[in-house]
Amino acid sequence: MADAAQLTQLLFATAAGDQRAFRQLYDASSPHLFGLLLRMLKRRDWAEEALQDCFLKVWQKAETYAPDKGAPLTWLMTVARYRALDLLRVKRPEVEMPEEGEEQSLSFADETQSPEDGAIETEGMGRLDHCMKALQEEQRQSVLLAYYEGYTHHELAERLNAPLGTVKSWVRRGLARLRECLES
Amino acid sequence: MKYQSPKLQRMLSAEYVLGTLHGRARARFQRLLTHDAALRREVGYWENRLAGLNGHFKPETPRAVVWASIEYQINTSKKKVVPLRPEHSAPARGALWRNWAVVSTAACALLGVSLFEQMNRPPQVITKIETVRVEVPVTQPLPYVAMLQVPKSEAKWKVSIYPDKGVIKVATSGRYALDAQAKSLELWVVSKDGPHSLGLLPLEGDGEMKMPEGLQLDAGDATLAISLEPHGGSPTGKPTGPVLLAAPAVRPA
Question: What value of ipTM does the predicted structure carry?
């Protein structure tokens, strides 16, 4: 796995139109982006389509990456996550929402995994993990489901079997408390 | 409209990054984001903080055909416009300057750049191939035509697809070095829903194959790809080996 400095160099070279650097950037980072897209989109064909969109965007917009604003892989993953969210909003109607009681199959079992297990960027992760655990159960579940599954408020309400307004406030309070904790 | 309250700004930024800000509210927020630096900072804060959750995504290597398609697209329609000066400050060392030199050369001679790239590529990297347009009497349905040449090999295939007749004609020149007892070359057409096998490529001479039944080519140009497969072709119906090249097939207008 290329480190952050290498990825940054590759992004700079890509911004200058270097196709070989772009290929190296793809080789080093695409498995991470693809993992995110598979998890969020659930369907391999959509994930492949989205991955293609992401790298075409990276090819066009690599010069907008600024190292002082975050790690290069974070930037790439953010591109992928926004793409996944856009696609879900368009395509989700085709996907069955899980029935109540099926939570087990879709539950974020990974959540109990220690952050080190699959960590690609451990920076700041311990703190985030600590603050996530400090949230109330419903708040934490809402935030994680929205992050990993890309659920809307409506989908969260359906999934968590709670009124829309309640779910909205779980998300909002969860985020507000998360921020307080992260900054304390 | 501006979101004046810092508290509201914070919350909208957080929900934007999380994805729970949707629909028109999301679109409006995105518009504000383009000219509001404070909002962008807020968004950046959450992007970086929540990225801590990314460690739980399990990396998985995508199939080679995804890269083939990306490379095909950046070599055709999505020609990169290189800014005169990058927005960020240039990295200190010389690497970028060398790249800039390459780019200037490329700007002078477009043909030169593809040659340059071909020479500098590792062997199995996919290369965009010249396409040929053929003159055919207008009364006949026009075929899709592609010239396929694997880098660092003498072998070339001219592939003509006649969707109306349901026939694919292949003319080979040169010979592709391959242990034909162990491996086969498989020809694919890559459409929006993924690659579809067209059959095995002859290693020499000419051949004709039937188009698979029910195969619809996308309107306009199609993309062809060749992958290296076990003898007899892919056992799964999708490419399993390395994609040797992807190239457009052009249907003359």
Answer: 0.85
